[in-house]
Write a sequence for this structure.
């Protein structure tokens, strides 16, 4: 069944909330303190608690070693040795392999271990309180009768930087948002995750530092680490790593048949060169302030004919890229309105591929684009408000009928136009 797009709004969810996967670790009645440079405990995609190895096990007095050749953590206390190979669904206690339903991982510069499996190999009592998301470790069951007590590791005040992953449901093609705080003004910041291929940029908003990252369409489903490195290359360099899950998402496939004359005149090297030289530069420089206000609205109403990131075949030949936005079919001349406040960075007539084209900057690297228009009511530099008419639906460029191609991007990396991003920073 074909979907209708009427007064559909891009409601942009409030994303500055607590990390959905964080947990607390108590040793006896004492809550352990974690921060960015120690690593933060989290619940992985197998619903198992992963904790930063060194601070927890050394608090209990265990000795830690690392075998680089086998990528194995070695935890030893008295006559018990537990080997935890990275990425393997088992641990080894005194030479005996014990299966486990999740695996130890390395995120950034920190090693995380499935805490229950490792501690129970030492005969330690471990309890889980679901309501408070808390793991409680009985230290006496770890130490036995030797009278020792734990020495709880703490965070260092010299490492004030920290961050929160504020988007709670992350999919390929969505925006991954961060709030970076407790940062010295002169600190530098770099961000890395294998789920994002685009260059990151950090913006100041109030007392916070904000980063909006486009999750790659081909990002693997499952756990990913995200590392923020403060003062990279300096003597006081340190890293903060948190983890998030990229959820599985299926994308549709479309078969489009057009005349050879249209195909050859609008999908060729000349059209590609024009797009690179005209459209892409309009999405390379963004004002550092947030221009948008509240929720985004759809720029027009009509029938959805091609979805975001759809895999498209044209005359049985697969397109070299995924569909960059959504196509909304409606009558030629139907008004196209600004989905939110922004500044026009491109109003180009007659482009071979995209036809009459408008690009708008909404600040902090967030852009919207409008292709195939029959008319354009704005000029470069115009500041428009939500709901202002900026043009009209048409069929210019590579088009088989009247429709609006609407795209949202972080700079030149396209993202899901439906993702709730209202109040993304508010």
């Amino acid at each position: 069944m074909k979907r209708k797009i009427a007064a559909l709004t891009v409601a942009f969810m409030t994303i500055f909330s607590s990390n959905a996967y964080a947990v607390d670790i108590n040793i006896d009645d004492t809550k352990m303190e974690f921060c960015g440079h120690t690593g933060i405990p989290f619940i992985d995609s197998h619903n198992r608690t992963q904790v930063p190895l060194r601070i927890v096990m050394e608090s209990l007095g265990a000795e830690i070693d690392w075998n680089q050749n086998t990528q194995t953590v070695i935890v030893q206390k008295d006559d018990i040795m537990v080997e935890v190979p990275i990425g393997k669904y088992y641990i080894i206690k005194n030479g005996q392999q014990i299966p486990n339903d999740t695996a130890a991982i390395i995120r950034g510069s920190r090693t995380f271990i499935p805490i229950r499996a490792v501690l129970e190999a030492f005969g330690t009592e471990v309890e889980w309180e679901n309501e408070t998301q808390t793991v409680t470790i009985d230290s006496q069951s770890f130490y036995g009768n030797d009278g020792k007590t734990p020495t709880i590791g703490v965070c260092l005040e010299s490492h004030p930087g920290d961050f929160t992953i504020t988007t709670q449901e992350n999919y390929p093609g969505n925006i991954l948002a961060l709030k970076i705080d407790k940062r010295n003004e002169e600190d530098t910041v770099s961000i890395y995750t294998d789920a994002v291929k685009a260059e990151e940029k950090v913006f100041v908003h109030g007392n916070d530092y904000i980063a909006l990252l486009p999750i790659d369409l081909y990002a693997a489903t499952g756990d990913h680490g995200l590392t923020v490195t403060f003062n990279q290359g300096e003597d006081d360099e340190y890293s903060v790593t948190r983890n998030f899950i990229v959820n599985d998402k299926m994308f549709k496939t479309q078969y489009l048949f057009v005349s050879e004359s249209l195909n050859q005149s609008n999908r060729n090297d000349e059209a590609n060169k024009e797009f690179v030289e005209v459209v892409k530069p309009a999405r390379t420089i963004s004002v550092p302030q947030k221009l948008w206000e509240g929720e985004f609205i759809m720029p027009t109403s009509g029938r959805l004919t091609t979805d975001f990131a759809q895999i498209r075949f044209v005359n049985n030949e697969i397109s070299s890229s995924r569909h960059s936005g959504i196509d909304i079919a409606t009558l030629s001349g139907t008004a196209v309105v600004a989905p939110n406040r922004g500044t026009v960075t491109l109003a180009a007539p007659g482009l071979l591929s995209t036809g009459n084209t408008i690009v708008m900057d909404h600040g902090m690297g967030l852009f919207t684009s409008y292709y195939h228009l029959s008319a354009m009511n704005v000029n470069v530099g115009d500041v428009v408000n939500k709901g202002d008419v900026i043009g009209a639906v048409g069929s210019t460029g590579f088009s088989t009928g009247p429709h609006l191609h609407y795209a949202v991007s972080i700079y030149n990396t396209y993202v899901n136009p439906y993702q709730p991003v209202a109040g993304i920073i508010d």
Q: What stands out?
A: The domain at 162-246 is CATH 2.60.40.10 (Immunoglobulin-like). The radius of gyration is 26 Å.
